[in-house]
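Why should sequence recovery work at all? Because a backbone constrains its sequence more than one might expect. Tight turns favour small or flexible residues, buried strands favour hydrophobic ones, and helices have their own preferences. The token representation captures these environments compactly. In the example below, the structure is given first.
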């Protein structure tokens, strides 16, 4: 499954033009996707937590309860990457940062990647693939149930994230992909329910998800982008006046 996610992340169909290519011989042709510096930075940044996890695992540096540490860290990385992918569209509409749109999908897929690790740790390391116990825990612990629901949404979005699915589903595709906000909110509920005492940090993440959701609502988004266009126009007029 993890190999599949990686193939989706580096899939040329998800927005990265396959520009540079070379051939080892006449019959073996290997193509590499051409990344911008920003894209390289994002991919590298998203893989750093994985490198740190692997290093800490091999150095026995994962606290006295390594399984719980892995569980908590992968959950946190998944949530942060999910929020970053949700931030991409507002970064473009509010600040005109167009490059953010190119990394929206990889960030979402990286979030799914860490959520899959999180789930695999839960079923494999924590419950040793004992399906009876896993089912019992999932239905007994309400936070596990909402986490599972969020995971299922992320799975369906990851599967349908290719250009092929976008074409096949037409208008339904964008409607389906709005469910990413529901996934975000479910993860926040998951987090709030599993934290025993201080819920300030989960609520802070929740506030971020809600702000990003509000920025997507047309009545909020339209005036913001109109304001941005007005600022651009004023700037352009000033620079033209200076140039005279
Ligand atoms: C697929 C079903 C899921 C299950 C069974 C599950 C289970 C768990 C468990 C057992 C913990 C640790 C509880 C503890 O030891 O105190 C946890 C924590 C967490 N999970 Fe999940 N989870 C699931 C899905 C998700 C998803 C999809 C995300 C994010 C995209 C997520 C984000 C988190 C976060 C942020 C934490 C808390 C990390 C912290 O306190 O630093 N989980 N989850």
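From this structural description, the recovered sequence reads:
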């Amino acid at each position: 499954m993890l190999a599949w996610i990686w193939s989706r992340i580096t899939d040329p169909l998800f927005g990265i033009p396959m520009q540079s290519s070379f051939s080892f011989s006449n019959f073996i042709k290997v193509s590499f996707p051409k990344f911008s510096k920003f894209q390289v930075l994002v991919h590298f940044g998203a893989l750093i937590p994985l490198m740190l996890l692997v290093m800490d695992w091999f150095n026995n540096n994962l606290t006295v309860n390594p399984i719980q540490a892995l569980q908590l860290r992968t959950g946190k990385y998944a949530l942060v990457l999910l929020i970053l992918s949700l931030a991409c569209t507002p970064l473009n509409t509010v600040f005109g940062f167009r490059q953010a749109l190119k990394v929206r999908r990889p960030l979402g897929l990286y979030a799914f990647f860490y959520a899959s690790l999180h789930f695999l740790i839960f079923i494999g390391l924590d419950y040793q693939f004992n399906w009876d116990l896993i089912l019992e825990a999932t239905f007994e612990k309400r936070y596990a149930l909402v986490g599972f629901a969020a995971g299922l949404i992320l799975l369906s979005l990851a599967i349908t994230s290719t250009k092929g699915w976008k074409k096949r589903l037409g208008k339904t595709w964008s409607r389906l992909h709005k469910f990413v906000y529901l996934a975000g909110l479910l993860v926040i509920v998951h987090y709030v329910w599993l934290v025993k005492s201080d819920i300030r940090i989960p609520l802070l993440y929740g506030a971020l998800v809600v702000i990003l959701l509000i920025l997507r609502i047309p009545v909020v988004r339209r005036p913001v982008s109109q304001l941005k266009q007005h600022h651009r126009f004023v700037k352009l007029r000033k620079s033209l006046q200076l140039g005279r």
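A few observations help interpret the result. The CA atoms of residues 29 and 177 lie 35 Å apart.
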